[in-house]
Amino acid sequence: MPLGEKAGWEKSESRYCGVEADFHDDIPQLLSLNLSSGSFDFIVAPLMDPTYRPSLMEKDKGGSCVPPFAGSDLVLSPSQWSSHVVGKISSWIDLDSEDEIVRMDSETTLKQEIAWAHHLSLQACLLPSPKGSSCANYARCVNQILQSLNNMQLWLRVPLVKIEEDSMDEKSENLLDSWELWNSFRLLCEHHTQLSIALDVLSELPLANSLGRWFGEPVRAALINTNSFLTNARGWPCLSKRHQKLVAGFFNHSVQIIITGKPIHALPKAGLDLAANHIDDNSKNMQRHPLKSYLDYVAYLFQRMDPLPEQERFELGYRDFLQSPLQPLMDNLEAQTYETFEKDSMKYIQYQRAICKALVDRVPDNEAAVLTTVLMVVGAGRGPLVRASLQAAEETGRSLKVYAVEKNPNAVVTLHSLVKLEGWENIVTIVSCDMRSWEAPEKADILVSELLGSFGDNELSPECLDGAQRFLKHDGISIPSSYTSFVQPVTASKLYNDVKSHKDVVHFETAYVVKVHNIARLAPCQPVFKFDHPNFSANKSNQRYKKLKFDLPIDTGSAMVHGFVGYFDATLYKDVHLGIEPSTATPNMFSWFAIFFPLRLPVCLHPGTPLELHFWRCCGSTKVWYEWCVTCPSSTSTPIHNSNGRSYWVGL
Amino acid sequence: MPLGEKAGWEKSESRYCGVEADFHDDIPQLLSLNLSSGSFDFIVAPLMDPTYRPSLMEKDKGGSCVPPFAGSDLVLSPSQWSSHVVGKISSWIDLDSEDEIVRMDSETTLKQEIAWAHHLSLQACLLPSPKGSSCANYARCVNQILQSLNNMQLWLRVPLVKIEEDSMDEKSENLLDSWELWNSFRLLCEHHTQLSIALDVLSELPLANSLGRWFGEPVRAALINTNSFLTNARGWPCLSKRHQKLVAGFFNHSVQIIITGKPIHALPKAGLDLAANHIDDNSKNMQRHPLKSYLDYVAYLFQRMDPLPEQERFELGYRDFLQSPLQPLMDNLEAQTYETFEKDSMKYIQYQRAICKALVDRVPDNEAAVLTTVLMVVGAGRGPLVRASLQAAEETGRSLKVYAVEKNPNAVVTLHSLVKLEGWENIVTIVSCDMRSWEAPEKADILVSELLGSFGDNELSPECLDGAQRFLKHDGISIPSSYTSFVQPVTASKLYNDVKSHKDVVHFETAYVVKVHNIARLAPCQPVFKFDHPNFSANKSNQRYKKLKFDLPIDTGSAMVHGFVGYFDATLYKDVHLGIEPSTATPNMFSWFAIFFPLRLPVCLHPGTPLELHFWRCCGSTKVWYEWCVTCPSSTSTPIHNSNGRSYWVGL
């Protein structure tokens, strides 16, 4: 039974809670003990008697000795096995033991148990945490298993530990950060998509930046031990504020919660009375799961969460889904695309504000009656900026002459009907032409455009406006007057694996539009390229080169950089801006998701080592493209991505 | 004119010497000045006036301004251009300048000059050394050029510098090692095969281990400045012992020598007299190239080198050529293969010595007349070990009964004729059978086999001998009695690129037999797997797991590990061994080249950081395979190679 249906959450976004159980040879009974009457949703249960050691089995029995599994496959229905049981692999196994017999026993047992779980069609197995700091043999064995595993997930249990050391001894520090262990394991297994994480949440939590890393990693479950709970004034278990925030993060990132440990909160009689709501104590106690109060508290945390805002709910399906950026210059947009973007009212409100200010600056109040401002909307589409311009004229009492220039003949059809419908024939002239080649009959006071992509210049706004500024007066205004792209390094194992699944270099050298969610932002954004409009200087070039240096907060610990997330911020006019850079993003706008630039080789960053990123905007005669690379840390320097735009480019 | 034909060197192994020239707008004259009458073989000459800056050209000339190249393509014949001229790219270019105009000018010029050199079909261009420690933009531009360069090589000029710092400040140290600069550049260009190195040899040389790194890198030329020469007692230029050794290394690795700089050895009159051999001084001086004495000295160093031993000469064509290892168990060897291996007399001498010792140990002198030793050659092939055994019996006066067991029916044919030809019918019984399934009529005193591959157990000697030891007496002797594999990390950019050229993972997860030459051995060999025979223990397994830690000599500096070279050493019997591990290799043996295990991602090692390698020998029911990975340095941890033997395995 889910932790409650929530308003504002999709059904698919329900959260479940499991419980870790001890070995029991009667699985049906174990299941009924833990799942009955509104209790837990699934159990994490050992599949094999923990005393089993293959080397102790009598050799001469030959094929007749059966491993001591917990019950046959027939004791539960296939759907019970797969929906209610996560297989817990024997926790004694230690594939990196110094003792060869322990290693051999561990390998045999691990393979037997996974094969059994596979036979039962379990959805997941919980792998015990590596015993020491070295895990190569464990990883080798798991990696072998992963090569032929159908759908099952393997959750590697990892304690959520990072001890802060002021010591300079790097080696000892490495051992104290469990992320390092995870990272080492998953690198050995080559980021396998079926290898994920079950975090053991302990009573002490690492610092916030270090915790943040895990949200870019494939965490599927979090095990919360009863001894991580505090006791509230009424004797009930509760979590610290930091733990609460972490659990909220887990809910937000579809991480299953699993309660583990013995009940250690002896509930006071009064508390139970309250909980039982005056129903007979004894009968209640009989049925009541000993860990029910912990489950109730987790359900309470879930219920207490704010519902998702409407926009977020709408965008749920886009989370971490890679899309190719639009090519609006080469291709003509479809009606559906115009429809979507025109609905972004916040964007047009900002444009209208900017146009108002420009009109007022252009024409003083005392000349409003006599002066007509020539405004050209370049890339008018189906007319939303024409409307915003006319509304701005009305709002400011300025008179306007509008040219609506649009290269897409299909959009021009709609423009004509709009102008007719609204009765704008005397004010608006529609020009069906590419702004780069149009010969304007007069020069404009104001040039308005919305040509920005998620990365600002990536839909070739600079090249288009270079063409259009031919018919802008020398003291004319461009709206936007400038825009800047931004990037930040991220951990994004989901995006990385999606790119990798194509098994080619091309996809690693392509930028993707994506609603980023399951990522860890490792450092604040930094500006990359800036373009100003108009730009009448003689030697101007739209080529750019930027070198960026990111320093991770020192308490982050080591982290994996799978790529860079890009954004833009545009100054429409003076103080009116529009953008998606997280720290200054315009609220309630949905026209742009972020852009993701992957790295062919993820770069592992260690504390104190900066990340040096190079970004180029290159221009050819028929296309524009980006190249990028990482040069520091030097031992993980990447190749230059997308040389000559071989994989990804925007056509002129 | 080559530096002389040498006895023992292939024609293709001739060495040439070039000279670096200043800009000259009359290339034919420049050529004749430098190449006439037994002087240099080629020139490294600027292609463009060094005062040229694109940004200073008059803009309004439009297409009419021609870059100031040194002469038209017609002044030399195509073959003169390509055999005698290496294009020297303008040394002022600086693509990583802080000054944007310098950057733009540099990019334009570099692209114009390379395009020109390409038009002339030059074989190579010399790229100026990066100006600072940062070279990303330079590399980006060169990388773009490399994407569409037909055959031309680009030699990046790199000063041969590594300053030893006792300081612990890593950052300052990095700047002082030019290898780091090269490494950064080539990583950005993704190990492009047309990007190579021209080393600037200075008067001070780095320490030996640091120098050694370069022999695993694609060094194509070495520029020796005249001021790196010392002056000998007679006033002539000469090189220090360390420089001489380095130049010998260059000769050995097909690195072209180029003399650069002004003549600074004012030869005394007496010296010239001696040199001119009493020919008229004046006329001699007229024709004499001012750098001739440096050239003569280099030629003298070449002439002085020892000729290649016959075996090396025979193996020249195999240098750094990747071969798939034999599968002698699954496949039957061909006659040619037997022919080659049987010629390796040193190997059979060692076997004969071992068999002698075993026979004497087995049968004391006083029983030699009455006892007959049963010796089985398992995998007898065409009989060389049968012969060695019989010779050992004769040498020691022991009497022998020999079984020759061979699974290849084609070899058995030859065995029968050999036995008949030699009249061994009463001593030798031929068994046409796989030793793993043969039911022997009696038990053996001595089991002799030659089943070893380059990596010892990689041709499944352990599995074969496990089968054969069924018919060995419990106190019987196996020759070999044990064998051990060894590995060492190497820089091997040639091998890495050859593996990479297949563009798949399979080739990166395969081991190759190879006569390694153009490699840098970064650390001494370490033992990996050992097998002892016979092994009658109950729980024996031929699976192995070994974790190895390599520490590079601290004066090496940073280095790139492209993979691991493997060898074996076998104890035939007591103190008689046979092997190819370099420090103990049996001399004059040619049956085995080394084996190379590549890394999918080369690992960059920094001083003081150990390299941790894991190696597994895994056994399935139908095959045996290796898996390997690197776990330290942790930031460059590799995936586990060849999981489940998916790419490379040896069939049982």
UniProtKB/TrEMBL annotation, chains A, B:
Domain PRMT5 oligomerisation: 482-650
Sites annotated Critical for specifying symmetric addition of methyl groups: F341
Positions with a binding annotation for S-adenosyl-L-methionine: Y338, K347, Y348, E406, D434, M435
Top-level lineage group: Eukaryota
A single GO BP: regulation of DNA-templated transcription
Record-stated family: Belongs to the class I-like SAM-binding methyltransferase superfamily.
Primary location group: cytoplasm
GO molecular function: protein-arginine N-methyltransferase activity
Keyword Nucleotide-binding in annotation: no
Subcellular location: Cytoplasm
Protein name: Protein arginine N-methyltransferase
PRMT5 arginine-N-methyltransferase domain mapped to chain residues: 310-479
Domain PRMT5 TIM barrel: 40-304
GO CC, one annotated term: nucleus
Active site: E450 (proton donor/acceptor), E459 (proton donor/acceptor)
Keyword terms of this UniProt record: Cytoplasm, Methyltransferase, S-adenosyl-L-methionine, Transferase
Gene3D superfamilies, per the entry: Divalent-metal-dependent TIM barrel enzymes, Hnrnp arginine n-methyltransferase1, Vaccinia Virus protein VP39
